[in-house]
Automatic annotation (TrEMBL), chains A, B:
<dbReference type="InterPro" id="IPR028082">
    <property type="entry name" value="Peripla_BP_I"/>
</dbReference>
<dbReference type="InterPro" id="IPR046335">
    <property type="entry name" value="LacI/GalR-like_sensor"/>
</dbReference>
<keyword id="KW-0238">DNA-binding</keyword>
<feature type="region of interest" description="Disordered">
    <location>
        <begin position="336"/>
        <end position="359"/>
    </location>
</feature>
<dbReference type="GO" id="GO:0003700">
    <property type="term" value="F:DNA-binding transcription factor activity"/>
</dbReference>
<dbReference type="GO" id="GO:0000976">
    <property type="term" value="F:transcription cis-regulatory region binding"/>
</dbReference>
<protein>
    <submittedName>
        <fullName>LacI family transcriptional regulator</fullName>
    </submittedName>
</protein>
<keyword id="KW-0804">Transcription</keyword>
<dbReference type="Pfam" id="PF00356">
    <property type="entry name" value="LacI"/>
</dbReference>
<feature type="region of interest" description="Disordered">
    <location>
        <begin position="1"/>
        <end position="27"/>
    </location>
</feature>
<dbReference type="Pfam" id="PF13377">
    <property type="entry name" value="Peripla_BP_3"/>
</dbReference>
<dbReference type="InterPro" id="IPR010982">
    <property type="entry name" value="Lambda_DNA-bd_dom_sf"/>
</dbReference>
<dbReference type="InterPro" id="IPR000843">
    <property type="entry name" value="HTH_LacI"/>
</dbReference>
<keyword id="KW-0805">Transcription regulation</keyword>
<feature type="domain" description="HTH lacI-type">
    <location>
        <begin position="31"/>
        <end position="85"/>
    </location>
</feature>
DNA sequence: CTCGAAATTGTTAACGTAAACATCCGTGGA
DNA sequence: TCCACGGATGTTTACGTTAACAATTTCGAG
């Protein structure tokens, strides 16, 4: 019963598309299944079946519904879907900033893999890494349309705020030692640092100086720890640590201090940017790299191979970290809870032109 | 009427928190307003009023509701809210990747400003910049829980896909010449390039060589155009363009070719990374910077001041671009539609040590 | 002490979707 | 010929929230 296709369809469609009764033609309300159903002359349940590709709809009906959808420009309402299904198909990513290469590459990988699994990602930036801010982010997150969260944050801060982590929210943490409480994915910082230091020792250097990252960073802490361990195990003297803040500029200042020390022939910088600063400091101090001083970085950022000289560094597989985060989190969401523990992504030393035997 | 506080509350709360009837204690269902209402002995509307801080709730009731909320760990369901209100408080950001410094810094600024306005941001990465992928992103976006979209994409591709841009979706575009169809926010590429080239000419160089970005990029196109214009207006010879792909490596190869040309005394690279490659090529070819050759970059990335030598470059205010994107989009969402047009963010030349008068 | 206005709280309905169940139709076997 | 069955489609309901309206309580003025 009822009218089929023909003129009626188009007119009705135009009425709906124009936004019924709204002057100016601006649509006030989106097209819903009911609208499509009315136009196609079926029930909204049938529209639902077509939209979800379910069986049990005869071809002719299906065709009609599809036409009506196209006619009206129907797009499903994800809020209603989320409400119905009780999930959002969205992953939240909490971080301090995208400024560091590592973070942005990890996030990119997360976004890509999440998309492949049908999940969108929502960025939750935390301004200053104060505890209040972290707490705020967690509170907001609780209300956020998110099925799980990936925390890319130095977890010192998380420690205090942890109590407020809403129960029932799935979490994966990157770059932290919270492995006893949450599933953690991280680069094998210690092994990377070990490779870097051994490489320099193997070249014949008596010992290796170290430009460390900020004290609050677990990654920095672990790289420094491994550096110290290798030296101690090899019975080498352990020079005092120069501390930077990941920036090239801080590396430069540390480098100036190191350049003043004639006994310094090998430097392990905790990241590539600080290594860049060290290179500049050595150059300005008239010390040749690698002839007089060798330098190793960490991260293998894209530019490292173009430094002067091209930088020997430890390659970090950020993409893999992102991939594992997503899969660990999705396992947690879909299946049984993942036990806490740390999933380590291996690193590789990339020898380039900034290292050589001591003079 | 009915029971108040006391033992009953806690027991009921525990039952709910534990996830009624689910063995193993894992809650299957989140706490809803109805649960809180039941525990507090009020209607769910009252809970709603308390949750939204509305007036007209007597202090004692309010207290009771808040207690119940805390007891149960209630958190509002944003899907239901979105459905009710017809908006998501979320902005989508479509981009090819976070790899480039510019993109990640713009996204960071977008995220920050969006958060300040109560909006979350959803990342929609597009793998390869093929038209199919862009189309796919747009389709997904249509179904996405998003009130508006910021497109950080070379819009050559958008051109073909534009027809499918769902009507009624608010858009702001970054870095494109789509200003006649959408509101666009962009760095003043042309002026930045002009400043760079003029700086070199003012130093006394006869002409300026150019390492351009990829042909598909509007930003690259505009920088190249301005470079050419300034030279022509000044009656200088216009050397052939060396084309790179934004990477330091491509800059290196371009630099090797330039280094072979003894008449080349000034180079304007379309971004800092390619400038880095040029510096390396010149160094390896034995040509001094800036004594023999001057180099200018574009972007002013964090590391540029630590290059050898520290790079003279054009500072781009990515944070401001992000800020304007968000506000333009929110204006569009909240108020009347914004007319198409381009909003230009000014640039500044930062003179450092890589430029000097010709030998 | 009574009445009515104001303040507080409760009830109903709707947002768009989809599972669960109900209904209708035609077909084939007894 | 009739009935049972299965496939196609329709109807009802619930997800969690809140606007709009209804009901109830409180309090002050006369």
């Amino acid at each position: 019963m009822g009218h089929r296709h023909g003129q009626g369809v188009t007119i009705e469609a135009q009425r709906l598309r124009a936004g019924s009764d709204v002057p100016g033609g601006r649509r006030k309300q989106r097209v819903s299944m009911a609208d499509v159903a009315r136009l196609a002359g079926v029930s909204s349940q049938t529209v639902s079946r077509v939209a979800n590709g379910q069986a049990g709809v005869v071809e002719s009906t299906r065709e009609q519904v599809l036409t009506a959808m196209r006619e009206l420009g129907y797009r499903p309402n994800s809020a209603a879907r989320s409400l119905r299904y009780g999930r959002f198909n969205t992953i939240g990513v909490i971080l301090f900033g995208l400024a560091s290469t590592g973070n942005s590459r990890t996030v990119e990988a997360i976004a890509t893999h999440a998309a492949a699994e049908g999940y969108a990602i929502t960025l939750i930036p935390v301004g200053m890494p104060t505890q209040d801010n972290v707490l705020g982010a967690f509170t907001r997150m609780g209300e956020l349309a998110v099925d799980g969260v990936i925390l890319i944050i130095e977890v010192h801060l998380l420690d205090a705020a942890a109590v407020t982590l809403p129960p029932g929210v799935h979490v994966v943490v990157v770059d932290s030692d919270a492995g006893d409480r949450y599933p953690v994915v991280d680069t094998d910082q210690a092994d990377g640092a070990r490779q870097a230091v051994r490489h320099l020792l193997d070249l014949g250097h008596r010992t290796v100086h170290h430009v460390a990252g900020p004290a609050e960073s677990y990654a920095a802490e672990r790289r420094t720890g491994a550096w110290r361990t290798v030296l101690e195990e090899s019975g080498r003297p352990v020079p005092p640590v120069e501390r930077g803040d990941w920036s090239a500029d801080s590396g430069y200042h540390a480098g100036l201090r190191l350049a003043a020390d004639p006994s310094c022939t090998a430097v392990f910088a905790a990241n590539d940017q600080m290594a860049l600063g060290v290179l500049r400091a050595l150059h300005e101090s008239g010390r040749q790299v690698p002839a007089e001083v060798s330098v190793v970085g960490f991260d293998d950022i894209a530019d490292a191979s173009s430094y002067l000289p091209p930088l020997t560094t430890v390659h970090q597989d950020f993409a893999e970290v992102g991939r594992r985060c997503v899969h660990l989190l999705l396992d947690q969401i879909h299946q049984e809870p993942t036990p806490p523990g740390t999933d380590l992504v291996p690193t590789t030393l990339i020898p380039r032109a900034s290292t050589a035997p001591p003079p």
